[in-house]
Design a protein that fits this description.
The protein is α/β, with parallel strands linked by helices. The chain is built from twelve helices and eight strands.
């Protein structure tokens, strides 16, 4: 079974001044992060504004990522959709591009049963050869999976892991203990070090777009038993994250990239640009990088 480890930026989607997908900016962002030593990329997630994109845009972005990575890092893509039909279409497209794994949020808005969510994942996974990773993100999807629900998913051979974007580290620890062979990603950057302490070995994060090196260093210090150094770096990252939460994480990540010379535009409407005050708040913590 394929196992994923390390730091995976949840890629933003760069837009130009006309609001269209910016291929040049995306290529620059990817190569910049590959030079830092990231393990791979998570494409088309919440940070990538996936639900503000058309299916055609989502496919074009993935094609650009796969071409730029050129098998030198892992590519995982969120194919989550409101309908199983669209999910299968995106999954087949990803499979044809030979990505390393597909992932999906549970379909939200309608209140489906757990059996319907279960069938959603299997219906998609059974249509492709690429493995599936469940995307557990209750704050965004409004769906909270119980331990029993997650165990049901992970007991399936076609489902090789889970992105756990939840503060429930107790639940994550229990799942790691029961499924040590699966790839279990922590999805909250601010508790990365805490997740390492309970056995997590992989992370997918928004802020990795512009400070992946800080989290790579946290991992190295933790593995070397240098906990004070790891905690110092996590504390620095969290001061930045605290500002991002205040001003808007996705908008703030793009603004931080702009400040670092990797312009990715602003978030697509109905998101609005950051105020001068918000940008000043962000600039005030950028020296912590």
């Amino acid at each position: 079974m394929r196992s994923f480890k390390g730091i995976f930026p949840a890629l933003v989607t760069p837009f130009n001044k006309e609001g269209d997908f910016d291929r040049t900016a995306l290529k620059k962002l990817i190569t910049w992060n590959m030079d830092k030593g990231v393990s791979g990329f998570y494409v088309g997630g919440s940070t990538g504004e996936s639900y503000l994109l058309s299916l055609e845009e989502r496919k074009a972005i993935l094609e650009m990522v796969v071409e730029t990575v050129n098998n030198e890092a892992d590519v995982i893509v969120n194919i989550g959709s409101f309908s199983t039909r669209d999910g299968i279409a995106l999954a087949k497209h990803a499979d044809a591009l030979k990505v390393d794994a597909i992932s999906s949020v549970p379909p939200f808005y309608f209140k489906f049963t757990i059996d319907e969510y279960y069938r959603y994942y299997l219906d998609i996974a059974n249509e492709v050869s690429v493995p599936m990773i469940v995307y557990n993100v209750p704050a965004m999807s409004g769906i909270s999976f119980s331990d029993q629900d997650i165990e049901k998913f992970l007991s399936e051979e076609r489902i090789i892991g889970m992105k756990h974007t939840s503060y429930d580290l107790f639940q994550l620890q229990q799942i790691i203990g029961k499924f040590p062979e699966k790839s279990l990603f922590i999805g909250h950057d601010e508790i990365y070090l805490s997740a390492l302490s309970i056995g997590a070995e992989a992370a997918i994060g928004s802020t990795f777009n512009f400070m992946a090196e800080k989290f790579i260093r946290i991992q190295k210090h933790f593995q070397a038993g240098e906990l004070d150094s790891a905690l110092k770096l996590q504390s620095e990252a969290n001061q930045i994250i605290q500002v991002l939460v205040k001003i808007g994480v996705f908008k703030g990540v793009k603004a931080a990239l702009e400040m670092l010379g990797v312009p990715c535009g602003t978030c697509r409407k109905p998101f609005q640009p950051l105020s001068k005050e918000a940008l000043a708040d962000l600039e005030g913590v950028m020296d912590l990088l």
